[in-house]
Amino acid sequence: MNILVIGAGPAGLLFASQMKQAQPAWNISITEKNTPEEVLGWGVVLPGRPPRHPANPLSYLDQPERLNPQFLEEFKLVHHDQPNLMSTGVTLCGVGRQALVQALRAKCVAAGIAIRYETPPADTAQLEAEYDLVVVSNGVNYKSLELTPALAPHIDFGRNKYIWYGTTQLFDQMNLVFRSNAHGIFIGHAYKYSDTMSTFIVECSEETYAKAGLEALSERDAAAYVAKTFKAELGEHELLSQPGQGWRNFMTLSHDRACDGKFVLLGDALQSGHFSIGHGTTMAVVAALLLVKILDTEADTAAALDSFNARAVPLMQLFKDHANSSRLWFESVGERIGLSNAELTASFDARRKDLPSLQEALMASLGYALGR
Ligand SMILES: Cc1cc2nc3c(=O)[nH]c(=O)nc-3n(C[C@H](O)[C@H](O)[C@H](O)COP(=O)(O)OP(=O)(O)OC[C@H]3O[C@@H](n4cnc5c(N)ncnc54)[C@H](O)[C@@H]3O)c2cc1C
């Protein structure tokens, strides 16, 4: 079997390394649009402590401690300048995207999987002729590849503006900070992901963004404005942005089908979901493990892809529902900003309660994928 993986992010890399482990004779290669050094984003949270949690990609690395993961067991909601500290009820694992992606790439290369960087967009007809299977794991960059109409995405942009910063201030808990000023409400999501760095995501409504004049500011001045807004949390620590990764509206990419012909979608390329539920990488891992299991057990590739479609699409739709409910809660937070800290916390906790459990669906898929 000759497989091409498009995109060297967590989805494509985990699929490639686990598939190669299951079928060492298969030829698997990866193309990546960026240079080896370019990895977008700062830190992410993942479930559990590796190697115990199978949806945590660190569980598939030989020495996960080398990535300097940080374990987070408390959640702090700050509203009206008062902190409300609680247990998260689970262990979360903060880790740098750069460290995670580089470690997964090294694992692939060690297994004999070639990664070709700075590869120009491929012609799909040529790919179809050359490969038995093409795994499309190019994140939300759907424009970078022309796929068949069956794989055309539904695209939905969130109403809030957000930006993903890094900072040297260390946040020992999962922090959710609501801060109002003359321009409107700003929300900070912050946690440490190494012993020197934290992620700091900020979102606000488009009206607040306009009133604060953020569009007209340079990246540096905008970061200084936000740092001043969250001075109580950041102290003198700066907010660091990546070049070209400015303020944007969150893009949710969804599909009715996960595969068509020889092409199969994986990770964000199949379904992206708002950062406020922190599950995108987890979903990418679970979908990659499902695809490996199905290809490993089903001799006919077309039948395997149909089977993957039947399992992955409902799971991704549930992920989308959870992520959208969470996103909408943040987009309408102005309606609740007068609540007390305890009331706002309760409302935040309840924002996805009417939906079927995503956790149970994930565990069921993992159980199938890992034969447990
Ligand atoms: C602000 C923010 C915070 C987040 N926080 C969390 C979190 O806490 N926890 C969590 O689990 N998830 C989080 N996520 C989501 C998470 O980052 C994604 O779900 C995850 O990276 C998906 O992995 P992927 O491999 O599918 O895509 P990506 O990580 O986007 O990787 C795709 C790769 O494909 C490459 N590529 C693109 N086009 C092409 C092409 N044509 N040819 C070749 N290569 C191409 C890209 O350069 C990239 O390397 C967050 C996302 C955002 C935006």
From TrEMBL:
InterPro entries: FAD/NAD-bd_sf. It comes from the Bacteria. SUPFAM superfamilies: FAD/NAD(P)-binding domain. This is Tryptophan hydroxylase.
